[in-house]
């Protein structure tokens, strides 16, 4: 599990931007809103139109975390089996965090979460990868209710707890002008993964960071039993 350093070629005295790069993979059933969530974070707005993702789409954003510029590389993966099967191993290679998405208005997308975790577990090959759970499309349901069109809030909380995952409800479609909840979720995840202070760092030009084995408390909070 390596976070690579990016070096752009330098000429003369031009300073060389160096970023730690963090790969975040977004998974979940087709249609839950993975593209819209990643686009919202990348472009700051809901996309006008989306089509089913084929394989994977990449979106990158440079963030300033406590004075350090880092690059977040989002892998928006296909939810449809036929568009992902040949690529699955690539998704999980050197991943730093996983965002597992379901649609709060679609109970089937919640019921399928164990299958996604099974895929993580199978492909992460023993690595413990930080994982968060995101229930999207809150704009479609009455949020004051404990039942979201069939997905019970209590069930979701228990599922997240059982797998040691932080859990967020949001909407990629939340009208602009309101507080950017989607942005806050991504920023908080970026902050947490960059705070893994015990990364080991090889200082060669294209060196890498290695995720450490975390202490028990940290593991309980972040590992998704992948
Ligand atoms: N109301 C509402 N609709 C949303 C939201 N997020 C996504 N959608 C809609 O849901 C549909 C599917 O969204 P996508 O982002 O393409 O879903 P996906 O998970 O990337 O789908 P695949 O690429 O097939 O895996 C689109 O019609 C979006 O406009 C949301 O927060 N609220």
UniProtKB/TrEMBL annotation:
Coiled coil: none annotated. GO terms for molecular function: GTP binding. It is found in: Endomembrane system. GO terms for cellular component: endomembrane system. Belongs to the small GTPase superfamily. Rab family. CDD domains: Rab33B_Rab33A. Its main location: membrane. Keywords: GTP-binding, Lipoprotein, Membrane, Nucleotide-binding, Prenylation. The keyword Lipoprotein applies. InterPro entries: P-loop_NTPase, Rab33A/B, Small_GTP-bd, Small_GTPase. It holds the Pfam family Ras. It comes from the Eukaryota. It is a lipid-anchor. This is Ras-related protein Rab-33B.
């Amino acid at each position: 599990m390596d976070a690579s350093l990016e070096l752009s070629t330098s000429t003369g005295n031009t300073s060389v931007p160096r970023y730690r790069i963090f790969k975040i993979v977004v998974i979940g059933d087709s249609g839950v809103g993975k593209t819209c969530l990643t686009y919202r974070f990348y472009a700051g707005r809901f996309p006008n139109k989306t089509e089913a993702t084929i394989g994977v789409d990449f979106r990158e954003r440079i963030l300033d975390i406590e004075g350090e510029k880092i690059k977040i590389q989002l892998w928006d993966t296909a939810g449809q089996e036929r568009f992902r099967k040949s690529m699955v191993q690539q998704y999980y290679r050197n991943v730093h965090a996983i965002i597992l998405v379901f649609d709060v208005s679609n109970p089937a997308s919640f019921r399928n979460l164990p299958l996604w975790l099974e895929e993580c577990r199978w492909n992460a090959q023993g690595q413990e990868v930080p994982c968060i759970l995101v229930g999207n499309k809150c704009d479609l349901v009455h949020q004051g209710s404990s039942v979201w069109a069939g997905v019970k809030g209590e069930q979701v909380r228990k599922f997240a707890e059982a797998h040691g995952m932080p859990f967020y409800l949001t909407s990629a479609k939340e009208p602009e002008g309101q507080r950017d909840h989607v942005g806050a979720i991504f920023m908080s995840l970026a902050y947490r993964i960059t705070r893994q202070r015990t990364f080991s760092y090889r200082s060669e030009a294209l060196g890498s960071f290695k995720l450490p084995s975390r202490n028990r408390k940290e593991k309980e909070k972040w590992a998704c039993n992948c």
